[in-house]
Write a structure and sequence with these properties.
Helix content: over 70%
Order of helices and strands: HHH
Radius of gyration: 12 Å
Number of strands: 0
Shape: elongated
Number of domains: 1
Largest sheet: none
Structural class: mainly alpha
Number of helices: 3
Strand content: under 5%
Distance between the termini: 11 Å
Length: 56
């Protein structure tokens, strides 16, 4: 089963923050969005991953 859990943008945000330890402010600059939006997308992405993990 190969379903996509995260959108490309959500995946990018998670990698930049969790793996590369970038601040949301800097990620927002790179992606051309607002810091609050990036933070919201990150939190939703983490919830999606947790839910997918728990369903398995």
């Amino acid at each position: 089963m190969s379903e996509k859990i995260l959108s490309e943008n959500e995946f990018r945000i998670v990698i930049l923050h969790a793996v590369n330890d970038m601040k949301f402010k800097d990620i927002a600059k790179i992606l051309g969005g607002l810091e609050a939006t990036v933070r919201w997308q990150y939190n939703n992405a983490i919830k999606k991953v947790k839910n997918a993990y728990e369903r398995r």
